[in-house]
Amino acid sequence: MRSASWIPVALVIIAFQIAVFAPASTLGLIDFYDDTTQVAQRSAINLVSGEGIVVTSSDSAANSRVSYTLAEGILAESGSATLAAAATTTVVTHGLGQAPDRVLVTPTSDTLGARWWVSATSTTTFTIEMNTTTASAVTFDWRAQEEEE
């Protein structure tokens, strides 16, 4: 191999070493937050952000490290609910932590001709209502979800 062919390879290696081993002062300061609480400030590059990411963190001043646990945010919950015989409403806890954009409900037993709908959606619950009572309990499967992007 001619000596001139090593120049591009050497330039790539040098650029990689500069990027990896650059002094911390060239990287800038990043504030680490757990929700709205500042956990730490370090020299670093921010590689984690975006919607639907849940971050929990802790700062270890002894070794200058910030530990993070990443999890995908909860976008939907589902379950079953029962409307008791002779009742016209049942309140369901969905567990999203915010009001769902959409609640889907499907009866899994005979509604005996009664009409049903979802009302009173909140950050923790929604209500399944029927226009009349029934002689036996009516069961539903449900899914509460945030808007998908």
Q: What features would you highlight for this structure?
A:
Immunoglobulin-like, 3-stranded antiparallel β-sheet, 149 residues, mainly beta, 10 strands
Short note summarizing the structure:
The protein is mainly beta and 149 residues long. Helix content is 10%, strand content 44%.
- Fraction of residues in helices? 10-25%
Estimate nothing, just give the exact number of structural domains: 2
Secondary-structure element order, as H and E? Answer: HEEEEEEEEEE
| Major β-sheet strand ordering | 5-10-7
Number of helices: 1
Q: Determine the strand fraction and express it as a percent band.
A: 35-45%
pLDDT below 50 for ≥5 consecutive residues: which ranges? none
Instruction: Give the overall shape.
Output: elongated
| Radius of gyration from CA coordinates | 27 Å
Mean pLDDT over the full residue set: 76
Q: Report the span from N to C terminus.
A: 53 Å
Q: Which structural class do the helices and strands define? A: mainly beta
- Can you count the beta strands? 10
Largest beta-sheet details: 3 strands, antiparallel
Could you describe the 3D structure shown?
The protein is mostly beta strands and 149 residues long. The chain folds into two domains: 3-72, no CATH class; 76-145, Immunoglobulin-like, CATH 2.60.40. It has one helix and ten strands, in the order αββββββββββ. Strands 5-10-7 form a three-stranded antiparallel beta sheet, with no helix packed on it. The radius of gyration is 27 Å and the shape is elongated.
Strand and helix map with partners:
Blueprint: H1 6-20, E1 29-34, E2 37-43, E3 53-60, E4 65-72, E5 76-83, E6 89-93, E7 102-107, E8 116-119, E9 125-130, E10 138-145
Antiparallel strand pairs: 1-2, 3-4, 5-10, 6-9, 7-10, 8-9
